[in-house]
Prior knowledge:
The structure holds 3 protein chains of 3 kinds. Chain B is an all-alpha fold. Chain B is built from 13 helices and no strands. Helix content of chain C is 76%, strand content 0%. Chains in contact: A-B, A-C, B-C. Chain B binds chain C through residues 29, 32-33, 35-36, 39-40, 43-44, 47-49, 52-53, 157, 160-166, 169, 173, 278, 281-282, 285-286, 289-290, 300-301, 304-305, 307, 312, 315-316, 319-320, 323-324, and chain C through 137, 140-141, 143-146, 148-150, 152-154, 156-158, 160-162, 235, 239-240, 242-243, 246-249, 259, 262, 266, 269, 280, 283-284, 287-288, 290-291. Chain A: Belongs to the ABC transporter superfamily.
Amino acid sequence: MTTVERLHVPGTRAPGDAVLSVRDLNVRFNSENGVVHAVRGVDFDLMPGKTLGIVGESGSGKSVTSMAIMGLLPDAAEIDGSVMLKGQELLGLSDSQMCKYRGSELAMIFQDPLSSLTPVFTIGDQIVEALTVHNPKMSSKAKAARAVELLRLVGIPSPEARLKSFPHEFSGGMRQRVMIAIAIANDPRVLIADEPTTALDVTIQAQVLEVMHKAQEETGAALIMITHDLGVVAGMADDIMVMYAGKPVETGTVDQLYYSPRMPYTMGLLGAVPRVDKSAQTSLVPIEGMPPNLLTAPTGCSFAPRCPLAGPECLDGEPALLTVADDGGAGHRAACVKLAQLADVDVHEVFKAPPVPVSRFAGVPREERGTVLRLNDVKKHFPLMKGSLFKKRIGTVKAVDGISFDVREGECFSIVGESGCGKTTTLLEIMEFNKDQPGEVEIGGLNSKSAVSGSQKQAMRKELQMVFQDPTGALDPRFTVYEVLAEPLQNQGMPKEQIRKRIMELMRLVGLQPDHVNRFPNQFSGGQRQRIGIARALAVNPKLVVLDEPVSALDVSVQAGVINLLDKLRAELGLSYLMVAHDLSVVRHISNRVAVMYLGKIVEIGDVDSVFDSPRHPYTRALLSAIPVPDPEAERTRERIILSGDLPTPLDAPQGCNFASRCPIFAALPEEKRSTCLDLEPPLESGGTDHRFACFFPDRELDADMLVQHETADAGGL
Amino acid sequence: MPDAFPRAVGVQDGRTPVIKYLLKRAATYVVMIFLTTSAGYFLAVSTMSPSLIEQEKIPRPTPEQVARSLASKNLDPAMNPWDRYVQWLTGVVTRWDWGLGPDGGSVNSAFGDRVWVSTRLFLAAIILTLVIGVALGVFTAARQYKASDRVITSYSYLTYIVPAPIAYFLVQLAAININDASGQTIFYVTGISTPGMDPGWPTFVDLVAHYVVPTFAITLVGWGAYQIAQRQYLLDNVNADFVRTARAKGLTRNQAIRKHALRVSFIPVAQTIAFAVPAIFVGGFFAESIFAWPGIGFWSIDAIGKQDVNAATATLAYGSVIFAVGAVLADLATALVDPRVKVS
Amino acid sequence: MSVVNEVTAEMQAERLEHDGVVISKGRIIFRRFLRNKTAVAGLTLFLFLVVFSVLGQFLTPWTKNDIDPAYIGDAPSAEHFFGTTQAGVDLYILMVEGLRTSIVIGLVVGLGSMLFAAVYGCVMALYGGKVDKVMLFILEALIMMPSLLVVAVVTSGGSVGKASLPSWLTLTIVLLVFNWMGPARLIRSISMSLIERDFVKAARYMGVPTRDIVRKHLIPNIGSLLVLEITRGVTLAILLEVSYSFIGVGIKPPDMSLGILIGQASQQVSSFPWMFWFPLLAMFALTGSMAMMNDGLRDAFDPSSASVGRTRKRKARTAQEKTA
């Protein structure tokens, strides 16, 4: 199709109304290995005030598209096609010509708030700079006033004082608010947000998404929301474009995309995401293989190698975006030659999602299973020192403050919470297994207080292994896979011939080709590296595997495969898992029991369905309500609890309830009841079978200011 | 995610004020200087034997005469080193008296003017080295891979494999050749002043003229390291996220780099001042030897040759002080360019 | 599909070599080094200088104690390849000896101080706490000591009679004492960050003993840095020897070194230019050869994907060539 023809492709609206029109956008980079064709023919129209979600995994070309629109790609990038902003062609403009549009008509919010602000200038200076560039005649008084107004708009408390602060004095969420303030400083027509909340915690993500809603309302800007998270855009976007291998493969309204996807890739993605609001009845949909590298032009459908439905016709030329005729017609297009046959298929069948594995412990009641791990009042306190020459102890950080739980055979117990809540520290305390630590850790009958001899510790190490969050960092770059897997075996004194056999077994067990053992970790993809990490943990046949955020570094489609693998291994080998994760959807999918941590303490613990379906602690409720679900209808009508402020530092936590400072119930409590929360520490109380929580007033109403609901589907506040 | 910037010195908890921090650092350095100086004293006492030099005097003194003469100056080789140390230390602490040389000359008076001659030279060289190095670093970063960048950066790498005194000597040689070729004294290649100058303006001009060649020589081999460092740090920051943010605001690429990347790239350079000062100090010693300058370097090497224990120790102490000043200056400079280190 | 087959065949061959993983890794490093032409030239030059300094004395009948009255202060000739000194001593034989001193000092100081720095840095990082604090204090105190003056003090004492060490040995010891601090601090910080890395944690949680963690994870991962620091240390030691001897505080006659030759010749550079330029050129050849090797060594030890990619690409290309 030529550009001219493309311009005549009928869309839902006439392109003339669009504030931003992109036609046949192509971006090529020169790399060491050849020319990478990163973006291959992107078309879309963005209507004023509307939100377009661009969804894709890493390397799909979604960020490059946004940078091409902004004119921020390096000079070496070769860009062609057309980008029209209110009828003005932007491609081909020089850097200085582009500057007229950047920051005024066209603004952008970036992913990483920690590195996106200049560390040596104040917040005020950086906001004022955005004003100065486009309003050279504005008085400095007016600029300062506007900066304060902007900071107030994005919800920074005491904005006048904060103008003089430097970025390092702000938390990540606050810095992202500042980024939004800078972006909307000149009332842009188009706002591009590139993964704006990926680096943030769940409750902070909810806050920032609210601020973006508000910013869009204030400015009336059209929004392009780029994300890998199908949940984040479900509630915000009007239209969705799914990208794969540099190309849009399906576009349509948000309801069309989520409720009747036609491109197998979209279907797979939706099936690959676990749901936090539903109990797991099925396995996740795994998408095998890896995206193409874009160095060579695909001769057929770029998804064909990974597509379970691919036939010979799929290899004959890349399919164009075709209108889905039987779906109300308007605007829903998918790039699949078989789209007519895909109206009502079951994605689990199509992608051959494995059956839900059944563990041999499944029929045994929990009380009758053996205990593999028991923690009793485990604490980890760090002294906080001040001064450089003569250090003075000025306080105590109670990273973990009296944690008790047990893990039984065959079950998966998860600890959830936001960064800084102490969940990872708890794991490390277990792994250290040291008699000097306060509290007891008991692993496979060995107690940390009594098992002090080397051989006892060695025996403990055989029972307990760990899988790390970052699969790259967990493997020594100078070890081959063989050496990686041999290390624990050699350490247990296994003879060489047996090691070799065991390694081949392990490779097959985790779904890797046994003949890849001589490769180095950097020759594998992230998902494969995580499988190597899992294989290493399983090498010595442990009873308990500790999983530290095992899938958070992986792409959605890869993540599903690893989660299914973990599920399968647990059932087949009768393993127990202790998992730490911030992604509550993943936790819900694979756990049997869960504990919610806040500032070093467990605030709610119990059976996973009980805790997730009827949470009692206000923090658990806030956490669950903050997680976006990939279901537009549910997202729009959900009532959300938006907590105020950041997670406080666990420095000398108050004697009463830790959560009181952010608690929506506490905020609504009458004065006379508040003292209970402030003076007494709530104990973990039973709320039914296997469900305990720590709150004095779980059933009182929530503070109305912290509740947000986004009305009906069409109004959406946009 | 890892911090994009090297952790600045002195950021303990974000609240320690810099002045207090610097005072504490300075206190640590005082302890260190005391230790290095004491160690230096013992080293000098145990390896040097002034009596051998004394005996070469004409007329040759008797060993008894030598011993008496040295004992009167607290240089008695027969005395045990610890007692000598206590005696020497008492002199330094109570009277600020750094002792006498074997020839009876006071170390204090010998230090007198020479300290200023040397310090002035170091100061001029340090400032020029940093300014030129950083300026060239920025210049070459902006012209990455162009001819000017390649020439300047190659030159800087060359300075890594040339011994400083030989470079100074070659500069001196070139200056002499220019003088010879032109038949008049364009460059002064030895000494600090021409005798018999009128006081006032002519003396000052003469002084400056004598500074030219040594300062030029030290700077010429000194700036290379800073050019390379500054170029690298700036290039590291050119594609930083915050530069992209600045461009997204509507600044051109060059404006964004000039305003944002440049300032941030100064932070690690400021930290390297701690290494610049000692390097220039050593360079200054070499330069004084080669250009026959009556500074501390020239004098002390001569005095050490004459087995002067007290002169050696005093110079060592002076060197330690200069090194400590360098470290404190680096902290201060970092505090100036990095707001994460607070000045109160 | 023959290309694919060829590549698999190669992979199979590689697998057969598997038993000697360590050897094949060494071979990979060597191959990568050989690919860098400048580095190979640097290595060749360095080896040539070493051989020259050891065997050069057999190519001339002269010794450094011979005085040739027929050629006093004479320019290079067939009789005296590099000319003679104003005393009539053959410069060639002096240079062979001077070069040998410089190379010995460079290698001993470069290797010795780096070895010490590696141990010191690793111990600081591994033990941490009070041990680290005390060791860091010692390190910083030594940095505060101007080594130039210590060299001057120590070598001045040795020169005046008394049974004492030869000046080149004294200088070597002082350089050893004063050249390990910078690298030790670097190795400390790198080791500290390595210890925090997940793969070291993983090994610890498996119960791997500390000495094995150091041997298998820590040392290989700081290995490339160590190699670079060694060439840097060798260069620095050679430069310092020349600098000190040049101004008369380092090595003293009768010991011979490049620094002494250059220093002595600098007094009469206009009348006997060869006496100055030949040793100077020899020194540049020595330090230059080190600088030339640096880049190649860095590439060879770098485990980053780029070099692996290159290797694979090259293999694929050779495979293609074979099929073509």
